[in-house]
Amino acid sequence: MSALRLARAATGRGKIAKFEGGWHGGQDFLLHSYTQLGGTADRPAAVADSAGVPPEVTGTVVTLPFNSDRAAEIIREHAEDLACVIVEPVLGGGGALPAERRFLQAVGDACRECGVVLIADEVITGFRLAPGGAAGLLGVRPDLTVFGKIVGGGLPVGAVCGRGDLVDRVLAGDDGLSVVAGGTHAANPMTTAAGVAQLDVLLENPEIYSTLEARGDRLRSELSALVSRLGISAHVTGAGSLWGFHFTDAKPANVRDLHGSDKVAARMLAALLLREGVFLSSPVHLAFLSSAHGESELDQIVAAHATALERMKTEGIV
Length: 318
Ligand SMILES: Cc1ncc(COP(=O)(O)O)c(C=O)c1O
Known about the structure:
Helix content is 38%, strand content 16%. It is α/β, with parallel strands linked by helices.
């Protein structure tokens, strides 16, 4: 919310753009086109995800297609009114779907060309995939980046970082009116201490990233091999320590590709995995490895999938 306000204050423009399948929290502007899809794959329409979002707010939202060449085109069309584009470099709740490098760079180029503020939402990916965030990994430099979760050591937190001329508007704008960014929980000393301690651990142990990356790669490749061996229609997605398991015919690149996925099968898989001692935080979309998961836990996760999927296949569910 603060990042959007900074972008609007800096550009003097009113509209914001987000991608289909992007989750950025529960505030009205960004509560669009996450689960509710409108328009076409190339030209999505903004649709509110919740009752109670005023239609006039929906009128200020431009929805963009994820992993599509059309996104840059639509940004250019709306340039005059568009304050910012916000993007998760890896769609998290949208299904652990990584942005393609070429796509994200084209979005970044269009934003720069049109004076549109590019906001990377790294609430999940920030300090999880790399110290420079997932956008950095994909060769894109956002104007603003929003963080959460890890920067607070797991305690409730939100942080907006980025270009000095943008964030300094919290102190005072050109006309003397500053951008308000704060609240009861802002700059909470306990959260800040937990965040600093967490970042210290990551700085002192940079091998955490390469280890997590290698374990995530191993998990994705072993689960994909299992899917091929069993001959079932499913695909494993993700990046680094994030993964998604989707019952789809083709590998999904965006949420439209997930629309027809078998979510009943996904829930059943999650239930069967639980019986094998593997708990997925979100059965249908997204799962996480942490640095506490070692090779033996990976063995267990893969073996549990084998047991669960073999049973589902025997019973004709997949
Ligand atoms: C990528 C992403 N952005 C933003 C948010 C919103 O964070 P909060 O619920 O703290 O506003 C979330 C929450 O999970 C998230 O996953």
